Amino acid sequence: DEIEKWLAAGGRERHGELFYERMLKEVAITLARMHLGRWQHSCLYIKHVFVRVTGDGPDAKVEVALLDLEKGRRRLTAQGAAQHDMKQLRRHSSFSAADWQKLIYFYQAAFGSSIKGLES
After folding, report:
1. Burial class (CB in 10 A: 0-12, 13-18, 19+), 111
2. Predicted confidence band of residue 108 (pLDDT cuts 50, 70, 90)
3. How far apart (Å, rounded) are the C-alpha atoms in residues 118 and 9?
4. Confidence of residue 61 (pLDDT cuts 50, 70, 90)
5. What fold is seen in the domain 3-109?
6. How many angstroms separate the Cα of 119 from the Cα of each of 9, 89, 94?
7. Predicted confidence band at 117 (pLDDT cuts at 50, 70, 90)?
8. Tens digit of each residue's pLDDT (9 = 90 or more) over 6-38
9. Where are the domains of the chain?
10. Are 7 and 55 spatial neighbours (Cβ–Cβ below 8 Å)?
11. Quick one: CA torsion of 88, 94, 96, 100, rounded to 10 degrees?
């Protein structure tokens, strides 16, 4: 499911905050892995980030997939790919400010450095 659909269906409440943070971390790791390979999605909307949750409670597992990669392209730098996609994701997502900060924290840890302009 799209993350927003999962949230609307009560997934966050059903699995709890610790699981939701683990999900944000997995999303961040997936995005950072793509960007570290210098791949830019180029059309990164929240509806292109899918999650599959299996199991219940603290033992639940989460898998993350990115859709609509046909506009993806290689960039000269990982930093360029990250800046473009993450700024676009921020504009087109409904994450609260607190959730966005958590995602950025996990993303920058996985990416290995900060990304200019992501703090807002």
Report:
1. buried
2. very high
3. 28
4. very high
5. Transferase(Phosphotransferase); domain 1 (1.10.510)
6. 29, 13, 16
7. confident
8. 999 999 999 999 999 999 999 999 999 999 999
9. 3-109
10. no
11. -30
